[in-house]
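Narrative of accomplishments. A recurring question from our advisory board has been how the design workflow behaves on a single, concrete structure rather than in aggregate. To address it, we present the structure tokens for one chain from the evaluation set, followed by the sequence designed for it. No filtering or post-editing was applied between the two.
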């Protein structure tokens, strides 16, 4: 048991080489730490022997104190720590910090006990196994370790937290949203996002059953990696403008692929590329294995290189005819139907990021003292937070409604009925993110543009939400798609 000390006892330790203070009813001896303190020694000397709770929470995230528990030598006699120590797997206690279905006061028609079990297991797995590596790699830009990939493959749906037969789109939503809580936007994509958006095309469109099963087994077991290679320097959303060509050999046994691809997430470590190519009479999609004729170069974007964003050159790569996905020259439908799930997944993630940022703003406004009062006592701050809550909750509500439809529709019908709504949903979520990021930085001030310390989540979101606004289709393209789709369902008659 930690020793019990009195406030009078603490007040005696005020010299540079014998310096104590109190934070949240706990006593810290920082005599050997003051020279290493990132905020310097002066500030610590200023609070020597005193209660520094307010000063400390005004300047640090609680996790800083959790990391330095060794400096804590005891608690104040008769007093109890009040600050909530979040443990791995815990739900947030901040209002609006979790979607409504996770708050015990509220009910939802969409989630079952099985979903709740999955969420719990996923939260714990992310907090314990993914977040520590994600935080490290986000900073140093290295790619995900094989150990982490093996760990994820090994647990096979989290050691039975959910059975394959019960896995539905709400399970998918839960996994996507929980993954964002690693709070590392580049690593989030580096964590097999390439597979998530390309394996679906192989599963739905491979003509060769053997190939389909082999690739699925290899990538789901973590032995091989894959990515989706559509965009080029020449064209992104404008798929018709792509210049990578696939020419069928005279004997019809293979294609020769030549061209380049740009911004390919996970391309640096991929063994397979689901690639959009021009063929003699249209556009076709091929599963291209990595060979010596495939050259990859790392692209540095505004998020971490942990995402492994890649420039690729296919230099006359020989690809067997069996690797064609869907029909030859009719690849447009392969890509377009695959986009739905990718865009929906991005909506899951960016909306959860927005909620994390809202949570950060609520915590900060609650504990930051300005002009002698908590920041939240300023009406202008409450207005900003009110707007954020409205956006975050409407993102989630629309997302859940669309997810429910996906659960009750075939893949084909989803392409017909939901590509418009999903495009509009993603656009709405990223426009919301734009507003939320902007207001959050204003609430955090200098910390909102600083990569470490209190504002690091807000800083990262402000720097990276644009990835969701652009990848998988820009806001302009998707807004347009949504309205054009709606017009397709308009009755011919004047109304
Ligand atoms: C055991 C107690 C403490 C530990 C372990 C600690 C640790 C840290 C760490 C790791 C940082 C880097 C920034 C971050 O990650 O948030 C930091 C920054 C800082 N700390 Fe502390 N600190 C402690 C107590 C205090 C106290 C009591 C004060 C002031 C009264 C203080 C003042 C500062 C200041 C001014 C900064 C720079 C903040 C900024 O750049 O925004 N620290 N501290």
């Amino acid at each position: 048991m930690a020793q019990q000390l009195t406030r009078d006892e603490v007040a005696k330790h005020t010299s540079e080489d014998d310096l104590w203070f109190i934070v949240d009813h706990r006593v810290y001896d920082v005599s050997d730490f003051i020279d290493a303190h990132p905020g310097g020694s002066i500030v610590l000397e200023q609070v020597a022997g005193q209660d520094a709770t307010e000063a400390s929470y005004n300047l640090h995230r609680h996790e800083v104190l959790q990391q330095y528990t060794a400096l804590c030598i005891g608690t104040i006699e008769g007093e109890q720590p009040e600050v909530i120590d979040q443990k791995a797997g815990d739900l947030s206690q901040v209002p609006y910090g979790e979607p409504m279905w996770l708050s015990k006061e509220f009910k939802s028609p969409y989630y079952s006990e099985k979903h709740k079990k999955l969420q719990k297991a996923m939260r714990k797995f992310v907090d314990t196994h993914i977040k520590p590596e994600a935080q490290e790699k986000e900073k140093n830009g290295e790619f995900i370790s094989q150990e982490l990939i093996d760990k994820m493959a090994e647990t096979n749906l989290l050691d039975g937290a959910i059975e394959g037969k019960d896995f539905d789109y709400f399970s998918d939503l839960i996994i996507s949203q929980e993954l964002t809580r690693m709070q590392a936007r580049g690593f989030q994509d580096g964590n097999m996002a390439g597979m998530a958006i390309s394996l679906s095309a192989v599963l739905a469109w491979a003509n060769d059953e053997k190939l389909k099963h082999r690739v699925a087994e290899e990538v789901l077991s973590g032995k091989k990696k894959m990515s989706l290679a559509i965009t080029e320097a020449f064209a992104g959303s404008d798929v018709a403008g792509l210049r990578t060509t696939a020419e069928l050999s005279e004997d019809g046994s293979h294609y020769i692929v030549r061209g380049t691809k740009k911004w390919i997430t996970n391309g640096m470590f991929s063994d397979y590329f689901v690639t959009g190519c021009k063929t003699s009479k249209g556009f076709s999609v091929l599963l291209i294995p990595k060979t010596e004729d495939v050259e990859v170069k790392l692209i540095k974007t505004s998020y971490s290189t942990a995402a492994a964003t890649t420039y690729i050159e296919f230099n006359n790569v020989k690809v067997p005819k069996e690797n064609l996905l869907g029909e030859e020259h009719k690849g447009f439908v392969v890509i377009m139907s695959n986009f739905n799930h990718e865009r929906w997944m991005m909506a899951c993630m960016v909306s959860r990021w927005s909620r994390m940022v809202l949570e950060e703003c609520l915590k900060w406004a609650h504990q930051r003292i300005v002009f002698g009062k908590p920041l939240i006592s300023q009406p202008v701050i409450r207005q900003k937070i009110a707007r954020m809550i409205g956006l975050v909750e409407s993102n989630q509500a629309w997302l859940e409604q669309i997810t429910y439809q996906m659960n009750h529709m075939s893949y084909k019908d989803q392409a017909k009925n939901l590509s418009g709504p999903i495009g509009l949903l993603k656009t709405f979520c990223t426009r919301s993110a734009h507003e939320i990021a902007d207001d959050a930085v204003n609430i955090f001030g200098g910390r909102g543009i600083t990569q470490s310390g209190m504002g690091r989540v807000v800083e990262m979101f402000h720097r990276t939400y644009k990835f969701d606004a652009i990848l998988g289709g820009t806001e302009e393209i998707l807004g347009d798609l949504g309205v054009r789709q709606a017009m397709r369902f308009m009755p011919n008659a004047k109304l």
